[in-house]
Design a protein that fits this description.
- The complex is a heterodimer of chains A (about 300) and B (about 375).
- Helix content of chain A is about 30%, strand content about 25%.
- Chain A is built from 10 helices and 13 strands.
- Chain A has a 6-stranded mixed beta sheet with strand order 5-6-7-3-8-9, sandwiched between helices. In chain A, strands 11-12-10-13 form a 4-stranded antiparallel beta sheet. A 3-stranded antiparallel beta sheet of chain A has the order 2-1-4, covered by helices on one side.
- In chain A, α2 crosses α3, α4 runs parallel beside α5 and α7 crosses α10.
- Chain A starts with 6 loop residues before the first strand and ends in a 6-residue tail after the last helix.
- The relative contact order of chain A is 0.13.
- The longest helix of chain B has about 30 residues.
- In chain B, β1, α4 and β2 form a beta-alpha-beta unit.
- Chain B has about 375 residues and is α/β, with parallel strands linked by helices.
- Chain B is about 65% helix and about 5% strand.
- A 4-stranded mixed beta sheet of chain B has the order 2-1-3-4, sandwiched between helices.
- Chain B is built from 14 helices and 4 strands.
- In chain B, α3 packs parallel to α9 and α9 crosses α10.
- Classes of the chains: A alpha/beta (about 300), B alpha/beta (about 375).
- The interface between A and B is large, with 44 and 41 residues.
């Protein structure tokens, strides 16, 4: 791994054990400035510990971390104003309104007074300025929490599962906020369970399990490398099953009441042939997703 | 890209974060959190006041404590008994009825006058009342006999009550309960803040902000001291009401350093409690376990000189005992600066030692 000057974070071969549990077992990666970097993995994979070591909250048993060119451990006060952190718990002061939370955190970093309202507007909470934190919805709390992480305009932002437990609307809403942060040139490092989200938002993702990185690349590259079959579905009845089997590149064909599904690794000739036969009613093309990559790498057994 | 980043950063960070800035921000946050939390307000301000009201009213009636006495019949003996003012008389129709009442414990004894015969029956189980009743009846009957025989008494007793204000219950209740209230506010304030902030990860978040631990600690301590002054003010103002009748001595202002140092010592104890507790429930349980027995042993609820000698000696190791002593010396006994030197010294020593231990066992988060 080359230590490039534009790297915001360089993690080299870090190890961390809690008693007998090897939470992080030889993790290395680097994140470029302005990159949106995702760490994916099942519960207990070591995502949060990796994040905590990168932020300087924990000292790794072995290995090194360079954050914006400096070591974050021991508590590096010079570095702190340049990093923004959203923790898994909301970390709000009790009984303060949304605006007061932001003002308090802003004051800790010496931010000018108008900053709080500016941040509330950015995360779409301007009309909730005077609402106490315990009256905010889950999504609103998460957005406020992210605003608190960004109030001092840090160069690099760590977000630990910012979208966990949110309804689809809140999640989409938060995506816009995250995209806005990226558009401002920030480096973002975040963990999530949601594969669709990582695929949409991240420039690169690291898939972790059992304290190790199993794969690290752009989501599209990971999907392509999986070389998984594409599934083309049609409304049943517009094409006889026999004919479907004879289409160029068709590997197998299944029919049920809802659809006729052709499995293929060469979707282009299949689609061309279907177009020629004017048999495109109800067409759906499902290619592999990051979720397939994830399940392929981490296995399908149930994790508590 | 990098250059733009720097520019944006510079705009937002026009001022370098200073300790006084952080201190003010955190104090403001802690203060707002305190006054907006009704439960905390109740437990720290109203709850101790309730004790002051209840104890104050209860004990201030102590002088009116009369012995009940059943009577059967009437005459000069009964009239004289009534005039002593020491008994509360219940009339019975017959000796049988009065006897039953004594046997059932309704009255501790009765006096029956039938012509020249005075009968006294009392329950042996209540010796104090029996003594009062026998003594009173003896005295009254002797007087009546002398009057009947027209004899001038040879000895006269000159009995007069001396008001000793230091024995008035409100005079020891106010400093005692105030010491307890200040201790409770400080221990609960610091222990619960520490546990809650560790649980909701505010501590962790602060660790990742350019804030000195001293600013975090001193801001919360300042709020606790402010709360203690409010407690003291409300307490004394209430006790001064005519119903309670506190006589405040001229040196009352010497209570200011005592309240501040008492808060400091108990704040440190709260930090220690908070360091060992994982949840709010266990923290408030542990805080109660420390404060309540200490309050009893230190004489917050009753005068310490009514307890056994050995207990008084033991209580000298407790910070609340010294806070009590100091507060009662300057609030009600009119003693001067020299009376608070030892209490202040002990409270500072406690704060330093316990604070040091607390800083050794302190953790930013549970994991």
């Amino acid at each position: 791994m080359t230590d490039h000057p534009s790297d915001a974070l360089v993690v080299e071969d870090i190890h961390m054990a809690y008693g007998d549990v090897r939470a992080v077992n030889g993790v290395s990666f680097s994140v470029r400035q302005g990159e949106f970097f995702g760490i994916l993995g099942p519960n207990g994979a070591g995502k949060t510990t990796t994040l905590e070591i990168s932020e300087g909250l924990r000292k790794p048993d072995a290995g090194s971390v360079r954050l914006l060119g400096e070591s974050p451990w021991p508590r590096n006060v010079r570095l702190l104003p340049r990093i923004g952190v959203q923790l898994q718990a909301s970390a709000f002061f009790e009984k303060l309104t949304a605006r007061e939370q932001l003002e308090t955190f802003g004051d800790l970093y010496g931010c000018p007074p108008g900053r709080a309202m500016e941040m509330l507007e950015m995360v779409g909470l301007a009309e909730k300025a005077n609402t106490p934190d315990n009256k905010l919805s889950g999504g609103q709390r998460q957005r406020l929490s992210i605003a608190c992480a960004l109030v001092h305009d840090p160069d690099i932002v760590f977000l630990d599962e910012p979208t966990a437990g949110l309804d689809p609307q809140s999640r989409r809403n938060l995506w816009d906020v995250l995209r806005e942060i990226k558009a401002r040139g920030k480096t973002i490092i975040y963990t999530t369970h949601y594969m669709d989200e990582a695929e949409t938002l991240c420039d690169r993702v690291a898939i972790m399990d059992h304290g190790k990185i199993l794969a690290l690349d752009a989501p599209a590259a990971l999907v392509r490398d999986l070389d998984a079959a594409t599934r083309v579905s049609l409304t049943p009845g517009i094409l006889p099953e026999e004919e479907a089997r004879r289409l160029p590149g068709a590997e197998s064909v299944d029919t049920d009441e809802i659809s006729l599904t052709i499995t293929t690794r060469t979707p282009a000739p299949v689609l061309t042939a279907l177009a020629e036969r004017q048999a495109l009613d109800g067409l759906q093309v499902r290619t592999a997703t990051l979720e397939d990559v994830f399940l392929e790498l981490t296995g399908r057994e149930y994790r508590a | 890209m990098t250059v733009t980043n720097e520019d944006v950063g510079q705009q937002a960070r026009t001022e370098t974060p200073s300790s006084s800035h952080s201190f003010k921000a955190l104090s403001r946050a802690a203060f707002k959190g305190f006054i907006r939390d009704r439960a905390t307000l109740f437990w720290t301000i109203l709850f101790p006041l309730m004790f002051l009201v209840i104890f104050g009213l209860l004990f201030n009636d102590g002088g009116e404590n009369k012995t009940e006495l059943g009577v059967v019949g009437d005459g000069p003996v009964i009239t004289a008994l009534e005039k002593t003012g020491a008994v509360e008389i219940t009339e019975f129709d017959s000796q049988d009825a009065a006897l039953t009442a004594v046997q059932e414990g309704d009255v501790p004894g009765y006096v029956a006058v039938d012509g020249d015969t005075v009968t006294v029956r009392y329950a042996a189980s209540n010796q104090a009342s029996a003594g009062v009743i026998n003594g009173l009846v003896d005295g009254v009957v002797n007087n009546a006999n002398m009057q009947a025989a027209n004899v001038q008494p040879r000895f006269t007793v000159d009995a007069q009550q001396v008001e000793d204000s230091s024995l008035e219950p409100i005079q020891y209740l106010t400093p005692g309960l105030l010491a307890w209230a200040v201790a409770m506010g400080a221990v609960f304030g610091s222990a619960l803040t520490l546990v809650v902030w560790r649980k909701n990860q505010v501590l962790r978040r602060l660790r990742l902000a350019p804030v000195s631990p001293l600013a975090i600690l001193s801001s919360r301590l300042t709020v606790s001291i402010g709360i203690a002054f409010v407690q003291a003010f409300v307490f004394i103002a209430l006790a001064l009401l005519p119903v309670f009748g506190l006589q405040l001595s001229g040196q009352w202002y010497l209570a200011v350093p005592l309240v501040a140092l008492g808060t400091l010592a108990f704040f440190a104890i709260g930090m220690l409690v908070g360091s060992f507790s994982k949840t709010e429930e266990s923290a408030s349980g542990a805080a109660n376990l420390v404060v309540l027995p200490m309050a009893f042993l230190s004489g917050s609820f009753f005068p310490i000189d009514q307890t056994p000698e050995w207990l008084q000696a033991v209580s000298m190791v407790l910070p609340m005992r010294h806070l009590n002593d100091g507060l009662s010396a300057v609030l009600v006994r009119g003693q001067g600066l020299e009376a608070i030197l030892l209490p202040c010294g002990v409270l500072i020593a406690f704060a330093v030692v316990v604070g040091f231990i607390a800083s050794r066992v302190f953790t930013w988060d549970d994991a």
